[in-house]
Specification:
By secondary structure, this protein is an alpha/beta fold. It has a single domain, classed as Vaccinia Virus protein VP39 (Rossmann fold, 3-Layer(aba) Sandwich). It has 8 helices and 7 strands. Strands 3-2-1-4-5-7-6 form a 7-stranded mixed beta sheet, with helices on both faces. Helix 3 crosses helix 4.
């Protein structure tokens, strides 16, 4: 219950940064991580980790030699992530996804295997969205996958322009219902 209240507080404080008023359902979290090949992944990135619903599922399936770089900018969520996860494979980063390349260098990764994003791209400033999408495309290895949570199909053309190989999946069992874009580089 505290998790839900913190999510609502964060949303009310800054709806343009949070993008939803409730954490992702386990159905949505499963759909977001479904394309990940956990046997081969060395580096997975999560953008907009929120309260850690998706983070928990990734960590459960990750191999011991894989690293999860988890980006979140909200201080309340950062505190929850640090409190709830004590795993050396997890690197919690309180910074914008716009700086993804800097942290890849810091943690000695040339490219990323998989990127999972819950960022509210549609409501972010256009320049930030463009920069984030460029960072995602440049950071992914060839054949890597990027999954993006969205609550509408607005903005799909922009993502499809950068990732022509895009499949859309609908998740009814979430509040609100959501779309997952599965993009392959």
């Amino acid at each position: 219950m505290e998790l839900q209240l913190n999510f609502i507080k964060a949303f009310l404080k800054n709806p343009k940064r949070i993008g939803a008023f409730t954490p992702s359902s386990h159905f949505l979290a499963n759909k977001l991580i479904e394309p990940i090949n956990f046997n081969s992944a060395k580096c997975i990135v999560e953008l907009g980790a929120g309260t850690g619903c998706v983070t928990k599922k990734i960590l459960r399936k990750m191999s011991k030699n894989c690293t999860l770089l988890c980006f979140e900018i909200d201080p309340l969520f950062i505190g929850q992530l640090k409190q709830n996860f004590n795993d050396p494979r997890l690197k919690i980063i309180q910074d914008s996804a716009e700086n993804l390349d800097r942290y890849l260098r810091e943690f000695n990764f040339e490219k990323v295997d998989f990127i999972v994003s819950g960022l509210p791209l549609v409501i972010l400033p256009k320049t930030a969205t463009n920069k984030i999408l460029n960072r995602i495309r440049c950071s992914l290895k060839q054949g890597g996958k990027y999954t993006q949570l969205q609550y509408s199909l607005i903005g799909i053309k922009k993502i499809k322009k950068m990732f022509p190989c895009l499949i859309t999946r609908f998740v009814l069992f979430n509040f609100p219902p959501a779309f997952v874009y599965v993009c392959t580089k």
